[in-house]
């Protein structure tokens, strides 16, 4: 499953979260620099469609505490 281009995460990325950020009924993916919006009608088989990233500073340097 492809969610983003190479801008997501890295070798030591952790602290991912899942939740409906924008209230559209679909699960989105969160990490400390922003969240990825699940496309409408997305399925695991649609690996070519990337999700839209919404930059948001959930946390500064260091860890993040994601609670939904």
Describe the structure.
This protein is mainly beta. It contains no helices and 4 strands. The chain has strands spanning 17-19, 28-31, 34-37, 52-55.
List its salient traits.
globular, 0% helix, 68 residues, mainly beta
What topology does this entry show?
Layout lengths: L16 E3 L8 E4 L2 E4 L14 E4 L13
Antiparallel strand pairs: 1-2, 2-3, 3-4
In total, the number of strands is: 4
Mean pLDDT: 76
Q: How big a fraction of the residues is strand?
A: 15-25%
Assign an overall shape. Answer: globular
| Largest sheet data | 4 strands, antiparallel
Number of helices: 0
What can be said about this structure in brief?
This protein is mostly beta strands.
